[in-house]
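TICKET: design request
STATUS: open
ATTACHED STRUCTURE:
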């Protein structure tokens, strides 16, 4: 990517845990290939959905979804429109039937995307993924990436499998410009 991502940010959560964010450019040129990589290439190892205080939706596709991009919206889903799918505005949308204000269009579009790493209050990294927010600052979606503390069925393990961070490291290098070996936080602990 040609754009330079901002430095990482960190926030302390009400439960004493922390979340680090590694922003990626929220542009069509970055987000279209990122969403395609997630859902066309790695659909079988990711979990996705809204993740907000009090509710976490952990959804997975049972077969490779179709991934399309048109008129500013990514559409990802199984089969036709009647089956499971989602739409997410990541680019310029030109409505055809009705007039929407520039403010409405801007509020719907993804305004921020960031890889994240959660740490428990003990300091141990516990979750790795990617989040998207719209122009109003509302979370659009979280994608949970493979986790060394969980097996492929998302069951806790006692001995972490650090190879499960490969997708996090690869995608973060490709889209946030952070070299795979640049962050000792993702080395075996």
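STATUS: resolved
RESOLUTION: sequence designed for all positions
ATTACHED SEQUENCE:
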């Amino acid at each position: 990517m040609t754009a330079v991502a901002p430095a990482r940010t960190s926030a302390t959560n009400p439960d004493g845990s922390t979340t680090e964010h590694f922003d990626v450019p929220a542009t069509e040129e970055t987000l279209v290939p990122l969403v395609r990589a997630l859902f066309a290439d790695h659909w079988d190892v990711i979990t996705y959905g809204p993740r907000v205080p009090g509710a976490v939706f952990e959804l997975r596709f049972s077969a490779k979804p179709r991934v399309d991009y048109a008129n500013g919206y990514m559409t990802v889903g199984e089969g036709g429109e009647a089956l499971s799918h989602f739409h997410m505005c990541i680019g310029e949308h030109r409505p055809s039937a009705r007039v929407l204000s520039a403010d409405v269009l801007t509020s719907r579009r993804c305004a921020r995307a960031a890889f994240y790493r959660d740490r428990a209050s003990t300091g141990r990294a516990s979750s790795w993924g990617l989040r998207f927010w719209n122009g109003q600052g509302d979370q659009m979606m979280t994608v949970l990436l493979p986790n060394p503390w969980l097996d492929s069925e998302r069951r806790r393990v006692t001995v972490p499998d650090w190879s499960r961070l490969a997708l996090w490291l690869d995608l973060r290098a490709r889209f946030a410009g952070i070299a795979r070996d640049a962050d000792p936080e993702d080395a075996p602990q």
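CLOSING REMARK: The CA atoms of residues 119 and 184 lie 14 Å apart. The mean pLDDT is 86.
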